């Protein structure tokens, strides 16, 4: 994408959704986050230019929530799209932009945040997340067998050193809210115990086949808004994140039947369920018809209570983004990353 293409004039879409009609969730600060966002992780399958064009197109059809991360490698392109939208009349305060500090920058959060701000052409972020609770690094595009020779388990004292830097960003006015991502209940309990500024949100994998009821409820009970990635089961996720045991949400008979009853694609049912359940889905697509329908479904033709209950009944506990590349021991099961015993897995 050339700079000219990246900064094409912003033009609100006639067939778009009125952003004022999109549901919101209220954070513990009183701020309101749009209940549907656009994810920007291209899963190594889409170019940064394609994603940046989708961001501009999504804002044109009514999106006001864009979920970014430094490791996605496309913030410098998305910045052109945000700039074009604001130059075209979208107010900065009406946008919600999230970014995340990557694992290799846990010791220099300020520098990471400042680079994201520069790349995104913003003065502040609405939400900044610790992308993973481990400082374990992996390069872009590695396969599932890759391991950081210096990998470590979750060490709470180290995480809190990172969190103090996150809190400092709020005090500096560089970010409005801070949050966690890819966490577990025992890890979040420790953060809540020790944080001066508590997490506003926790970003987590959430879809009908992986509903995480315990973590979801823990977040809600503690005033933390759950943001759900892979809300339709991440059909375009990287090959390294695929295993033979994975299930496919949009092929589930319950989802397919409800979709037929509503005359929509099964993916739309996954998004409707997520919004009505109370989480904030951040579906990814570069295709206009898809990202428009993902937003439109939040404002029309809701699922009935019976349909919501039917979807609640198809949880398979099927985690798709298992995180194998962050493991710290030889021949270690990926489940150790997620504290399966309810206690933090030690070294």
What would you note in describing this structure?
α2 runs parallel beside α3 (75-87), α3 (75-87) packs across α4 (109-120) and α8 (253-262) packs across α9 (266-277). The chain has 347 residues and is of the alpha/beta class. It is 34% helix and 11% strand. The strands form two sheets. Strands 3-4-5-6-7-8-9-10 form an eight-stranded parallel β-sheet. Strands 1-2 form a two-stranded antiparallel sheet. It has helices at 3-6, 48-60, 75-87, 109-120, 156-172, 185-194, 213-221, 253-262, 266-277, 288-296, 305-312, and strands at residues 24-26, 32-34, 38-39, 65-67, 96-101, 127-130, 178-181, 201-205, 225-229, 280-281. The longest helix has 17 residues, at 156-172.
Biggest sheet features: 8 strands, parallel
Beta content comes to 5-15%
Structural category:
alpha/beta
How would you describe the shape? globular
For the residues shown, what is the average pLDDT? 95
Distance linking N and C termini: 45 Å
Q: Identify the strand order in the major beta sheet.
A: 3-4-5-6-7-8-9-10
- Count up the helices: 11
According to DSSP, the number of beta strands is 10
In sequence order, what are the helices and strands, one letter per element?
HEEEHEHEHEHEHEHEHHEHH
Sequence stretches where pLDDT stays below 50 over 5 or more residues = 1-5
Cα gyration radius (Å)? 19 Å
């Amino acid at each position: 994408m050339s700079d000219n293409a990246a900064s094409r004039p912003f033009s609100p879409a006639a067939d778009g959704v009125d952003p004022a009609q999109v549901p919101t969730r209220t954070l513990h600060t009183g701020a309101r986050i749009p209940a549907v966002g656009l994810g920007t992780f291209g899963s190594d399958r889409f170019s940064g230019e394609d994603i940046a064009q989708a961001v501009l197109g999504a804002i044109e059809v009514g999106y006001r929530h864009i979920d970014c991360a430094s490791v996605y490698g496309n913030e410098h392109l998305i910045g052109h799209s945000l700039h074009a939208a604001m130059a075209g009349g979208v107010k900065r305060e009406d946008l919600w932009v999230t970014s995340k500090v990557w694992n290799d920058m846990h010791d220099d959060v300020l520098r990471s945040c400042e680079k994201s701000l520069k790349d995104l052409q913003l003065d502040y972020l609405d939400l900044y997340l610790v992308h993973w609770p481990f400082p374990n690094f992996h390069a872009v595009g590695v396969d599932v067998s890759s391991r950081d020779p210096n990998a470590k388990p979750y060490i709470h004292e180290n995480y809190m050193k990172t969190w103090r830097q996150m809190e400092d960003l709020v005090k500096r006015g560089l970010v409005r809210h801070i949050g966690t991502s890819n966490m577990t209940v025992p890890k979040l309990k420790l953060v809540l115990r020790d944080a001066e500024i508590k997490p506003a949100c926790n970003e987590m994998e959430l879809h009908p086949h992986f509903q995480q009821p315990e973590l979801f409820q823990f977040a809600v009970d503690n005033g933390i808004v759950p943001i759900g990635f892979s809300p339709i089961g991440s059909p375009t996720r990287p090959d390294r994140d695929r295993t033979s045991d994975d299930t496919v949400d949009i092929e589930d008979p319950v989802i397919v039947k409800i979709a037929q009853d509503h005359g929509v694609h099964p993916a739309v049912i996954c998004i409707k369920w997520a919004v009505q359940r109370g989480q904030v889905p951040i579906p990814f697509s570069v295709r206009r018809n898809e990202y428009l329908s993902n937003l439109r479904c939040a404002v029309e033709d809701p699922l009935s209570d019976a349909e919501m209950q039917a979807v609640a009944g198809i949880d398979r506990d099927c985690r798709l983004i298992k995180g194998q590349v962050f493991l710290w021991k030889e021949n270690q099961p990926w489940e150790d990353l997620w504290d399966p015993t309810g206690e933090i897995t030690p070294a």
